[in-house]
Amino acid sequence: MGLKEEILKELENSRGKSYSGAELARMYGVSRAAVWKAVKALQQAGFSISATTHRGYTFAAENDLLTEAGIKQYVAFPCRIRVEKTVASTNDEAKKSAESGAREWDCVIAEEQTSGRGRYERKFVSSEGVGIYISIVLRPKFTASETLFITTCAAVAVCEAIEKLAGKSAGIKWVNDILLNGKKVCGILTEASFDVESGGLRYAVVGIGVNVLPQVFSPELAKIAGTVFEEGEYPQEGRAKLVGAILERFRYYYERIPQRTFFAEYKKRSVVIGKRVKVYSGNVEGEAEVLDLDENCFLKVRFDDGTVKALSSGEVSIKI
Ligand code: BTN
């Protein structure tokens, strides 16, 4: 960690507390001028660090910018987190870095996405500073058919992280939507690259988008989208803590994919079992009752004409 990151971490950990330039210089064995330069760079990067003659440097209590150091306080395993202000899509960024050799668990996170996308090329609204838009590079050793479980593991991880931070019980709408009180607060998009010759998996990128803070959705979106926190509920460093918890829980389940550890949790949180749903497969639409979810995460449904089918998430989507 460089001086800038060290200072940021210290100030972030003691929001509202003031440090004199001399104090920080002593702590890091550098000159006061070096401290001044580092703080200046942080201010230019958008952090609201106040600097006054008598009190010294203070990190404003309401600061909530995502930073690598800020997030890493809540992640116990080694990973690299690239934080961007604005990108088109963090999945695209992560795929580019995977192509140029990024390691497993390298992440890209952005304050805002201009072309955030979901399954079936649907738009994922990603407004600045109010959500989490993160993509994680994975280099799985398992079979191609198991790649589906990356999404399901991530879904369970997000639910558990929300529960930990917000104390709210989240449900999963098969296969990749997380709901709170019937409204979507998170979507997950996993994309994979296969080797043409061997058919083996080269890498996968799992993209997670969470609506964290209250925000103004379009009237259309407001009918289906919600946020993790309501006005006045947001904990300090809420987004960094949520990212940390998501990464921790996701890693736990991802490493246990061969044992299907996530499955019981996933099924328990399913909000579609026993419900009537609309099933979309290309242009074909039908109504069905959801009977069960099998161990491959196929959804067993009975259509109104009595036909029973196991639906694969790669081929169909559903609406409750
Ligand atoms: C969906 O709702 O179908 C999935 C939405 C996934 C959105 C996330 S945000 C981070 C990553 N970057 C993207 O462009 N998409 C995913």
Give the gist of this structure:
This protein is α+β, with helices and mostly antiparallel strands.
Unique ligands: biotin
* Average predicted confidence as pLDDT: 92
CATH homology superfamily of the largest domain: Bira Bifunctional Protein, Domain 2
CATH topology of the largest domain: the name is: BirA Bifunctional Protein, domain 2
Helix content: 25-40%
Radius of gyration over all CA atoms, rounded = 22 Å
Q: Structural class of the secondary elements?
A: alpha+beta
Spans where pLDDT lies below 50 across 5 or more residues: none
Number of strands: 15
Number of helical stretches of at least 4 residues = 9
Distance between the termini: 48 Å
Strand content: 25-35%
H and E string: HEHHEEHEHEEHEEEEHHHEEEEE
CATH class of the largest domain: Alpha Beta
Tally of structural domains: 3
Q: What's the topology here?
A:
Blueprint (H helix, E strand, L loop, with lengths): L2 H11 L4 E2 L1 H8 L3 H13 L4 E4 L3 E4 L8 H5 L8 E7 L2 H10 L7 E7 L17 E8 L9 H19 L4 E3 L3 E4 L2 E12 L6 E11 L7 H4 L15 H17 L7 H7 L7 E6 L2 E10 L5 E5 L4 E4 L5 E3 L1
Parallel strand pairs: 4-5
Antiparallel strand pairs: 1-3, 2-3, 5-6, 6-10, 7-8, 8-9, 9-10, 11-12, 11-15, 12-13, 13-14
Bound molecules: biotin (BTN).
Could you walk me through the main structural features you see in this protein, from its secondary elements to its overall organization?
The protein has three domains: 3-59, Orthogonal Bundle (Arc Repressor Mutant, subunit A), CATH 1.10.10; 68-268, Bira Bifunctional Protein, Domain 2 (BirA Bifunctional Protein, domain 2, 2-Layer Sandwich), CATH 3.30.930.10; 276-318, SH3 type barrels (Roll), CATH 2.30.30.100. The chain is 29% helix and 28% strand. The protein has helices spanning 3-13, 21-28, 32-44, 68-72, 90-99, 148-166, 219-222, 238-254, 262-268, and strands spanning 18-19, 49-52, 56-59, 81-87, 107-113, 131-138, 171-173, 177-180, 183-194, 201-211, 276-281, 284-293, 299-303, 308-311, 317-319. Strand 12 and strand 13 (299-303) form a beta hairpin. Helix 1 packs across helix 3 (32-44) and helix 6 (148-166) packs across helix 9 (262-268). The relative contact order is 0.11. The model has no long low-confidence stretch (mean pLDDT 92). Bound molecules: biotin. Biotin is lined by residues 89-91, 113, 116-119, 122, 124, 126, 133-135, 176, 187-189, 207-209.
